[in-house]
Amino acid sequence: MTDVKPATILVFDSGVGGLTVFREIKVALPDAAYVYVADDAGFPYGDKLEAALIERILAVIGAAIAQHAPDLVVIACNTASTLALAHLRAKFSVPFVGTVPAIKPACAQSNARRVAVLGTRATVSLEYTRALIREFSAGCDVGLVGSSHLATYAEAELAGTPVADDAIKAEIAPCFIDAEGRRTDTVVLACTHYPLLTARFRSVAPWPVEWLDPAPAIARRVVDLIGPRPQSNGPVPARMIFTSGRAPKPALARTLAGFDF
Ligand code: DGL
Prior knowledge:
The chain is of the alpha/beta class. Helix content is 42%, strand content 18%. The model has no long low-confidence stretch (mean pLDDT 93).
């Protein structure tokens, strides 16, 4: 084993949703040094005004880059990526990997040719997402479903205070369309918080669908960019930083270490 400095990867989200992306990257690159930044002081992003949010994201990530000098930044947040990725790339020279709605693979795999994109209200209303649909829907019917509450429900789920089934059912109901003899068969999880709720979604869905989580594809992209590295001295614990200044609760720290979610 040679003594090489591991790559530093900064993973960013408005809250704990980005952990669903982090866990995939960590499996693919166990020896990298991870800094997870949650802008919980700005959570939720999904209902914020665009200009102010872009400014906030640039400031928080700019400060994190200055402090941690990462080799790569993963924006593990669809809202921040669809809104600010172009601004981030223009402002900072470090490479960025974004998380954007997986519309192309969803449409490619949908047998019914009927897909729903479930994201924050911001993500589904942004031109970036609409352009992805124009470019990649390949003749599929793609419904956009914006949720104001699911990211907060996911935070509650991970904190051990899950919300009732009916609340979740109401948020996902518009995804399920049964028309012209074709029922929705694929739902794109276009917010990184939502994979924390997949088991809940399955249990309240009116019929089974494929819930598409882009995290494995993001991890593959990160591996491509970081490239093969000689082995370092083994895994180092990930650091988790909340912009509110709070420390992660012990349960969350264990979760982060063991991917128990
Ligand atoms: N996890 C985020 C996303 O992927 C945002 C949730 C929020 O802050 O509203 O969109």
